[in-house]
């Protein structure tokens, strides 16, 4: 049903009122390894124009709770991990959220009109 081993152990421990026997923990661990599951988490790669400050973009994303990997993408861009629940959301919902954060900080997506600059410079 998508539960992790830790969630199952916590639930059983609460129900039992005391820690589970080590033999049961070993059996549960062996059972979960037998499934050979791979967790999938969606991510997007942002490749800013060369004249943009990548650190500023990273700071904007992280300040809004998005996780940016320390390692750059092969093209030097930023790898933004989408929230774990993004796998269950419509394909573009999490990407739209990241784009909304960028827009709020004055950045535009590749196919969008750039934000209008105030001619007075303010």
Overall description:
The protein is mainly alpha-helical. It has two domains: about 5-35, no CATH class; about 45-105. The chain is about 40% helix and about 10% strand. The chain has four helices and three strands. It has helices spanning about 5-15, 20-35, 55-65, 95-105, and strands at about 45, 65-70, 80. Strands 1-3-2 form a three-stranded antiparallel sheet, covered by helices on one side. The radius of gyration is 21 Å and the shape is elongated. It comes from uncultured Thermomicrobiales bacterium. This is Helicase XPB/Ssl2 N-terminal domain-containing protein.
Termini gap: 53 Å
Strand and helix order: HHEHEEH
- Largest β sheet strand count, sense and barrel closure: 3 strands, antiparallel
Q: Which structural class do you get from the secondary structure elements?
A: mainly alpha
- Would you identify the regions where 5 or more consecutive residues have pLDDT less than 50? none
Question: From the alpha-carbon coordinates, what is the Rg to the nearest angstrom?
Answer: 21 Å
Count of helical segments?
Answer: 4
| pLDDT averaged residue by residue | 82
Percentage of β-strand residues: 5-15%
Strand count:
3
Protein name: Helicase XPB/Ssl2 N-terminal domain-containing protein
Q: Which terms summarize this structure?
A:
122 residues; 39% helix; 4 helices; mainly alpha; 3 strands; 3-stranded antiparallel β-sheet; 2 domains
């Amino acid at each position: 049903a998508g539960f992790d081993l830790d969630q199952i152990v916590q639930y059983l421990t609460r129900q039992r009122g005391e820690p589970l026997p080590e033999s049961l923990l070993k059996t549960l661990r062996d059972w979960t390894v037998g499934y050979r599951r791979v967790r999938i988490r969606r991510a997007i790669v942002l490749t800013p124009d060369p004249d943009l400050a990548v650190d500023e973009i990273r700071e904007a994303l992280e300040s809004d709770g998005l996780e940016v990997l320390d390692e750059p993408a092969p093209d030097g861009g930023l790898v933004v991990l989408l929230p774990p629940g993004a796998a269950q959301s419509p394909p573009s919902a999490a990407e739209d959220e990241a784009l909304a954060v960028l827009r709020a900080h004055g950045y535009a997506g590749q196919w969008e009109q750039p934000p209008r600059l105030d001619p007075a410079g303010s």
